[in-house]
Amino acid sequence: MKTAGKNIWKRGDLFIWMTGAGLALSLIMTAALVLGIVVNATRFFWPTEIQSITLKDESKVLGMIMEREEIPTTEINSPLPVRHRIQIKKANRDLYDSDFIWLDEEDIRITQTPKDVIAVERREWGYFFGYIKEVRDSGEIIARGTVDGLKVIKDMLGEVHALNDEISRLEKKEIGAVNYQIERIRLKAKKLALDGRTTGSEVEALNAKLPELQKKYEKLEEKLIQLRSSHKSKVVLQTIEGKEKILSLSQVLDIFNPNQFSFFDKAGYFLKGINNFFWDDPREANTEGGVFPAIFGTVLMVLIMSMMATPLGVVAALYLREYARQGTMVSIVRIAVNNLAGVPSIVFGVFGVGFFIYMIGGSIDQLFFPEALPTPTYGTGGILWASLTMALLTVPVVIVSTEEGLASVPKGIREASVALGATQFETTWRVILPTVMPSILTGLILAMARAAGEVAPLMITGVVKLAPSLPIDGLWPFFHFERKFMHLGFHIYDVGFQSPNVDAARPMVFATTLLLILIVILLNVIAVYLRNRLRKNLSVSAV
Amino acid sequence: MTQKVISKTPGSGTSNPGRAFFGKSLLRRKMVDNIARGAVTAGGWVIIFSILAILFVIVSEFYPLFKNPTVNLISEFKIKSPALALGMGQYREKAYTVETDGIRFYSLTDKKFLSKPELPDLNEARVTHVSPSVSNSPVLGLSDGRIYPLQIEFRSVYDSDSKRSIQPELKYENPIQVIEDGSPITVLTHIKNESSLRIAAQAWQSKVALVEIKERKTMMGTTRKSISQETISIPVKGNISAMAFDEAYNGLLVGTTSGQILRVDLEDPYAPAQLVGATPSEDISIVNMAFALGGYTLVITDSKGGVTSWQMDKNSENNLSLKIINEFKPHQTAPHLFSYSLRNKGFLSGSEEVIRVHYATTGKTQLTLPKPGKSSYTAMVLAPKFDGILTADKAGNLHHWEMENPYPQISYAGLFGETWYEGYDRPEYVWQSTGGTDEFESKFSLVPLIFGTLKGTLYAMLFAIPLAIFGAFYVSQFMDPNLKRTIKPTIEIMAALPSVVLGFFAALVIAPQVEKFLPGVFLMPFIVTALLVAALLIYETTPSIKPVAKKGKEIYLLTIITFLGGFLSFYIGTLVESSFLMGDHRSWLKQVFDVTYDQRNALVVGLAMGFAVIPIMFTIAEDSLSNVPEHLKASSLALGATPWQTALKVILPTASPGIFSAVMIGFGRAVGETMIVLMATGNTPVMEWSMFNGFRALSANIAVELPEAPEGGTLFRILFLAAFLLFVMTFIINTIAEVVRLRLRKRYQGL
After folding, report:
1. Of A461, B31, B81, B274, which has the maximum CB count within 10 A?
2. For residues B89 and B166, is the Cβ–Cβ distance under 8 A?
3. ipTM exceeding the 0.90 mark
């Protein structure tokens, strides 16, 4: 035993194990984090049964059990056994004070899973849990009770949704377009006025367009009202306490009975939920619905960023490796690159605010958009400025990766090209660049991953919690780079921390987080794979 | 793949697209080559330019904060007679003067007299004393013992071309007789708010007349005025020389020629006045007393020329007394003139010789206006927007000064030192940029934010350094090379996790769990170590289980042990809590150490931010450990050292600069990390080292406050200064790390 102990000391096995434990702990933490997010996010889409809980005082609660935890005691060495409480999602936000409650398990008499309970996903106020009393169409009762009601509503829902789509198309697309045109005419007129022209053919031409647009607007408005009034079906819902709620079917997004779901129903619902999460607009202060605008904003920002960062990064790397004479200048550039990589992201954001938004944006506004002032056009945060800021932040990633690739191109290849009479540019363009393409791609993908996950600089250069319209739409000039945008990372921060109803927002945050880390991890895995392939290839070619 | 590329190189075949180049003239190819060279070189310059531009833009945004304020005389013209008091509108276009025979309006832009509005009840009386007002509601004291409250309004009128012109307008109350025998008024003060006007005038030597004019809205919508008047007697040593209403504590402060300051409680004016303060000696008399904006800071000028600011302080027995806060640059002669800013805590003090601009919060005297020729000052007023000063002299001249002083509350001492703010017991470091009212005193000390940044970084490093360095040491020295190839990309993916995800996870998942299992968290290192020792002993003494942990593949076993250790420590932690910590660690901490436990605290930030910096530190440290020349290791092993001894005594000392560089880079990352500190702390700018409190870091502060800060304002520029500090901090740290790494590389080459 003693010799074994001494042996351990000399061989340092314990310390080796301890250093290994340090690594193990890091790995466990990473796994726990990813797993925790995956589990919590999947739970959000997977439907749970609605339980009917009868308390000891005979009052009933209907809802989904979300969590179970120990009740913290304040007594010292309390002799009582450990007690638990459960968190219930009661939904029906419009009828109750709060849609989440905690119940002590010892107050519960019985928990049942009633067969005829329904869940209604509504446009406003979140879910409704309860029963269907009756369904009315133009005032007439066409079905009574939950079973019949559910059947009838399911039949009608397709039509209702088609009507809803038509209404929202009219509201967003057509009326939006007319409004946009009117606004443009107003600004044009103002610009002419600023140039000192308040009369003349141009002004008249502009003014002549207005009544026509006005008429168009009124017509659309009329059509909208007409469409809205064609929603005639209503459903009378009943909570477990017997409270009634009359709901127009136009408010119903989906209606289902989770307690009768088979495994495949659940799986189908799960997939549908994920689908909606990807493609829907957010609702209820971003705590429900989907994240489509945030995905769109993130992708577009990353694309603009890539278009700026890649050429700059590649050119800078070429300069460092191929063109510059290795000397002080190169050392300075290299130190600059390394420092650029180490500058905190928020400092880039501050630079973006000072330089892009106020200096450049402010000048653009004064030169090209004086008619809109004092409302800024480019002199405020927007997707262009956010992307440029991000490009500056990610350029070192591209440089470092490209340089690494350039360094591993064997000298012989360059010499062979030059010996055959190619100029340096031809060598670079025809020989070197194709060879280092995978390195550039690796750098670009890493830069994209970085940009997709970075939030701090965006918070001050143009991200908002809810953007009214996407930066690309069908209205001239189609690309609206001055617009503010939504971003997945900021969505997490905003919904998780600025939302008034934290419990309701929580699943949404987990789902968004999962989506974000999936994107980032996927990009990184691709980058790692590319780099490994590249290393293998080069080691072959060098031989 | 690359070989394919090589085969594509020019000359390898005639069907090659590379031929396109050779078809062109040599001249053209040369030109293209030169253009490309220029473009690529420009690209290199862009990078240098970018880093300089970042520095330049940030500096140019905060530089104006430290520009010295200036004041320039922009116009001067004769007025009818020396003014007793002055006032002007916010655009500094029109002004009024109070002269002995009434009010006159002047145009400052045209430098000419406009009109003399009628004062119907002035009669034969002359103005002997004025209680001036920056909000243009002066009260005149007349030679026949009456007081005459006025209100001057500067209304903006727009003509058909929407051009603005200012029209001054005079409104007045009825004069009130306060000295029965008709002797002239000499000491007078007043205070006006939305519903009432209170005036105090010295009636006889020690008698003070208090007048209150109240305006009440009746049910019918009309206003009803009520006037109350009473005379109180204040026994003073010497004579009453100055008075000021103390709105905060509802009192009247009376200064005397013997240097005493007495306080009359206006809740009970007939109670004897209390002595609340005094000048250093009896022969220094009080010349003027007035409050700066907000009504907390009292500015007293004395006959020796001293200008001091004071605050009312309530002691334990509820007695009020005045405490001196700041002493400003004194005058040569008694400063009898005073005016304050309606925008900030700036004020003017003026003697006959000079006028000085002071700032109450910083205690600084910013500017001095020179003596007006051979004459002496009789009146002055500060412009409502704190951008100009109007003065009048005995020779009957009016001077219009323009002041460039946009950031008066900024000084190096204020940003980095302790400042005695209104309502505080002592000088402190405080960051509180915005408040509820216009009168709010902004508190811009960067020290709590720098402190917060360092605190967060410190806890993150405490957690991250051991894990990252241990991990790197293990991976580089003892791990199976095949396993190493899968571990390194895993760590790289850990590095890619967005900080917003870590911050969110820290705040919503880690924080509640840490709160629940706090004792377990602290026990974890010990329990895991104990478990490792136990496992090792079993392992060494039981040969039959050797294959469980092959050399280089111990990590599988270690992961299981660490995992178990974690669970065990949480379990033991709960036991410890219930048996030793009174069942609740929060109340135990409060009772034993007097620390409060915030759910989002430095410990949680340390864990999350540590997590964020582990990968980068790991990668750099692992690189430098792996790159130690192989022959060093081989010779050590050949001499009979165990792998552990080799690693500790040969590899570690050789690679230590690399490890230092890794720590520095990790440090730099933690300093600038924003989202984690923003989400996982309460963001309260407190200065306590306790790991159970939150903090506010520079970076998080920028992210929170910059979107709200108006462009070009003081806060906006200070946030740029904060960004500059972050930039400089990380620049220094990164440069040190870089230099160390380069030297290490050279050393390896030499070996």
Report:
1. A461
2. yes
3. no
